[in-house]
Amino acid sequence: MREALRIAVVGHSNTGKTSLLRTLTRDADFGEVDDAAGTTRHVQSALLRGHGGIEWFDTPGMEDSVALLEYLDHIAPLSERLDGPARIRRFLDSPEAHGRYEQEARVLNKLLECDAGLYVIDARDPVLSKHRDELALLAACARPLLPVLNFVHAPGHRAAQWRDAMSRLGLHAVLEYDTVAPPLDGEQQLYARLAVLLDRHADMLAELSGALGRERAARRQAAYRLAAGLLIDAAALHLQSPPQALAQTQALLRDKIRGREQACVKALLTLYHFHRHDYRADALPLENERFGMDLFHPQALKDMGVQLGVGAAAGAMAGAAVDLLSAGLSLGTGMLIGAAAGGLWQGVDRLGKRLSGKLRGYRELSVDDGVLRLLALRQQQLIEALERRGHAAREPIVLPQAAQWQSGPLPAPLKEARSRPEWSALAEGYVDDDRRKQQLASLADTLAQTAR
Ligand SMILES: Nc1nc2c(ncn2[C@@H]2O[C@H](COP(=O)(O)OP(=O)(O)OP(=O)(O)O)[C@@H](O)[C@H]2O)c(=O)[nH]1
Ligand SMILES: [Mg+2]
């Protein structure tokens, strides 16, 4: 097994060093992150496995570089013509390395031990002499440094000035990488630039970058399979109810579907290594009855621009389509499915004569197409938000409004699921047969393709 590459993450305090490592290692619990400067006090490592892997080192922020550089000029005057690492060594051997400049000593010591450093910059900051002094100290360690411009989504950032200042210091490869909302190909960009700086490790970095790209694609595919599973379960679920228990059956149906969506959301958060609190608490289906988010409130559907089945908005049981169940009835289950409660009564009126004598009073409840559309939209939006979210993000996810899935025919696998009650994992007699597997995979592809 090859040895891990060792990379130190360095920079001024509070620029997002720990945040960057959270995002790069996909670990939202790594280290401590805070608005206050001086949050990280000690060096902490994180291992990124695969192809030898990378051992990352988070370091404390540099705060006293101006004074330290003066001190260094004093204890290792230029007239002695020591090279950079020798000057830094002299400082590290001096008593002040354990006194006033203890933080800086930890950083420089770690950088000397590493193969390279990422120099994290808060791109909102103006370029000041303290930064130049900081870079002079870091550069003296004679390790390749890659400047990383963080906060590049902030209004009025100074990325251009920073790029200019960096090139004046001989640092020509620069990476723009916002740790909260990193570019989708951010990792690829990072490892490509590191490969240029770390020629001997270029093959390993290219392999690692390829592996991370494949992982990303596989994760997205797995996410859409989770969403497709939810949709099939919901579309296939039919609950039968005697007329007097209609309200209870309807409540049961809704609970089952809400619970199923919740399970899907949890599985998605876990898949992407995020926590429950990364999704706004009241956005989870079971935890609120606020009509904006409740799956079964007509307003939730309207807000998303989703079309309801005929008459559903008028019906008292909006969202739950009612179908008639009766053995031997020529009226197939498919016929009234898609029409919600209001639609049913209109439908019965219309069909009343033809059906007379054949109705046994039993009804079958299933969810309206509109609910399936809303479920599809919400999972798509959540997945795409998770794809773009850095593990440094601390604000909960807010789903955008989207325009797909709002109208038009539902995809064929969902239509088929409508007439396959045994396909719902929420029902008794559930079977995950080959056809279900095939249709789920096809639906997952459709979801993934319509998301972008
Ligand atoms: N909006 C936004 N906030 C960020 C970004 N990166 C970091 N932050 C925030 O900036 C603050 C500092 O982040 P840290 O990761 O603790 O910074 P640090 O460089 O490790 O700080 P020290 O350990 O104190 O030197 C935290 O409040 C982060 O949430 C970013 O890209 N965008
Ligand atoms: Mg930190």
Automatic annotation (TrEMBL):
G domain: residues covered: 6-150
The organism's place on the tree of life at top rank: Bacteria
Pfam families the UniProt entry points to: DUF3482, MMR_HSR1
GO molecular function, one term: GTP binding
Entries under Gene3D superfamilies matching the protein: P-loop containing nucleotide triphosphate hydrolases
BP terms from Gene Ontology: tRNA methylation; tRNA wobble uridine modification
Cellular component GO terms held in the UniProt record: cytosol
Name of the protein in question: GTPase SAR1
